[in-house]
Amino acid sequence: MRVKYNTDTQLFFQIGDPLDQGCAAYLHNAMYEFANLNAVCMPAVVKKGELGKFIEAAKTLDAKGFDITMPHKTDILDYLDECDPASEAFRCVNHVNIVNGRLVGKGLDGEGMALSIKNELADTLRGRNVLMIGAGAVSGPIAASLCEYGIGSVTVVNRTVEKAQYIADTLARLYGVDCSYGPLENDFLCAVAPEITLAVQCTSLGSGHGRDFDSLEFVSRFPQGCVAADVLYPMTTFLGAAKKRGMPTIDGRGMLFQQQLAMMEFHFGVKLPDEALLEAEEAVEIAIAMRSVRNRRMEKNKRYGSHD
To answer: Is 123 exposed, middle or buried (0-12, 13-18, 19+ CB in 10 A)?
Structure first.
């Protein structure tokens, strides 16, 4: 990958924790190269509670901005000098520019995932009954973007029900869509599942890091024609259960692809052609292959007591 490594090189970071299974930094760099930009994106693990320290370091290094994944998409709001209204309402930002020492943030997850789902479906989103699983930083923006495409209703579930209620109430207020909410529990999910025609999984459950769903029985209650989407990739237990049922599935790679066009315009003012999506798709496939090789190497090192 071409990087000039000179004093004009624009420095960006991809931050989050964990990052060992992520592909975003590689993808961003592929987009920079496609646009012939003198810029580089470096992955940096930033743990919960360390965001302030990272921001000071980024300013010291004269970084031009950074891109954000869990667990900082909400916490970053407290550090921003400027933010668009929708991202602020749902407290979700995943891209930041540093302009003359000021932090300017924007959330692009909602637009990216909604476009990915729309492009993958053979029919329109209009009238679909949507289940949003989780009420974290990406759930509200994704649901908001889906509302803009004319979905019929939204049900939001979360372990902390008050967070699900906030998203449902905000969507109803902003878009006039029929909204409901409830606990992320199998009984409630099984009760609402028969009416759902699009389920979007927005948590880290079943990703291989930490907790999984207590039960995926509710997946068997979805009606024929229901689509399962997940913000994670390439596979989660939720998507696995949906695939086993023969449901159409959409993983988070499409969200990454679609976000790239918006990300490039936000960071650099560059409008890429649609053909850049093919470049992004190729870059993600390469990054996933590289990740698989690294995982095998790490497992081998663990087995034989060596170090990475």
So the answer is: exposed
| Of 13 and 115, the one with more pLDDT | 13
**CB of 65 closer than 8 Å to CB of 46:** no
pTM of the entire structure?
A: 0.74
Helix (H, G, I), strand (E, B) or coil at 72: coil
User: Is 139 in contact with 115 (CB distance < 8 Å)?
Assistant: no
Query: Using one digit for the tens of pLDDT, what is the confidence trace for 214-231?
Result: 999 999 999 999 999 999
With beta carbons less than 8 A apart as the criterion, state whether 164 and 181 touch. yes
Query: Around Cβ 234, how many Cβ atoms within 10 Å?
Result: 15
Distance of alpha carbon 177 from alpha carbon 128, whole angstroms:
11
Residue 28 has pLDDT above 90, yes or no: yes
Return the residue matching tokens 């099984």. 190
Residue 29 tokens read as 């760099």
